[in-house]
């Protein structure tokens, strides 16, 4: 079993898609081992996305991610990282496969409904950023 980190982003929460996304997560065979509704401060978002600090989209990304509530999740499944990334779909919803989260719930490359870790090292950092070890079931 592998763990990965996921976010239901503020756009999807505001649009009322959290329940549908959670249902798809469980239907796909993931176990939710931790979950919390939170609102990131601008500083929290900047820390989380620090790897992108020099990118031109950093300010817009961190402003968006701190614009409203988001659901943060720790997911467990065999090959969870690649499985979640496949379920999410391409970053740009217009390029995402039919039936993926981003295709069905995202509206643009900037408002693409979900986030997921891209590697074991990233998952370890992201999980620890939001959850203490005791919070993970």
Characterization of this structure:
With 137 residues, the chain is an alpha+beta fold. The protein has one domain (2-131): Nucleoside diphosphate kinase-like domain (Alpha-Beta Plaits, 2-Layer Sandwich). 40% of the residues lie in helices and 19% in strands. The protein is built from seven helices and four strands. The protein has helices at 10-14, 18-27, 42-48, 58-65, 80-88, 101-105, 120-130, and strands spanning 2-8, 31-38, 70-77, 114-116. Strands 2-3-1-4 form a four-stranded antiparallel beta sheet. The longest helix has 11 residues, at 120-130. The chain is globular. The model has no long low-confidence stretch (mean pLDDT 94).
Main features:
19% strand; Alpha-Beta Plaits; 4 strands; four-stranded antiparallel sheet; alpha+beta; globular; 137 residues
Question: What is the fold's blueprint, element by element?
Answer:
Elements: E1 2-8, H1 10-14, H2 18-27, E2 31-38, H3 42-48, H4 58-65, E3 70-77, H5 80-88, H6 101-105, E4 114-116, H7 120-130
Antiparallel strand pairs: 1-3, 1-4, 2-3
Helix pairs in contact: 3-4
**How many E-type strands?**
4
Q: How many angstroms does the end-to-end distance come to?
A: 13 Å
CATH architecture: 2-Layer Sandwich
Class from secondary-structure proportions:
alpha+beta
Rg from C-alpha positions? Answer: 14 Å
* CATH third-tier fold name: Alpha-Beta Plaits
Run of helices and strands: EHHEHHEHHEH
- Indicate the proportion of strand residues: 15-25%
Entry summary:
The chain has seven helices and four strands. With 137 residues, the protein is of the alpha+beta class. The chain has a single domain, classed as Nucleoside diphosphate kinase-like domain (Alpha-Beta Plaits), CATH 3.30.70.
């Amino acid at each position: 079993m592998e763990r990965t980190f996921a976010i239901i982003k503020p756009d999807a929460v505001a649009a009322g898609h959290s329940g549908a996304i959670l249902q798809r997560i469980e239907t796909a065979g993931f176990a939710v081992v931790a979950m919390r509704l939170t609102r990131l401060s601008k500083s929290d978002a900047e820390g989380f996305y620090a790897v992108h600090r020099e990118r031109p989209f950093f300010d817009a990304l961190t402003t968006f991610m701190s614009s409203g509530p988001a659901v943060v999740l720790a997911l467990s499944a065999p090959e969870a990282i690649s499985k979640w990334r496949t379920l999410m779909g391409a970053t740009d919803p217009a390029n995402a496969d039919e039936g993926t989260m981003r295709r069905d719930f995202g509206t643009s490359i900037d408002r693409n409904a979900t986030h997921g870790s891209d590697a074991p090292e990233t998952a370890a950092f992201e999980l620890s950023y939001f959850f203490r070890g005791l919070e993970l079931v």
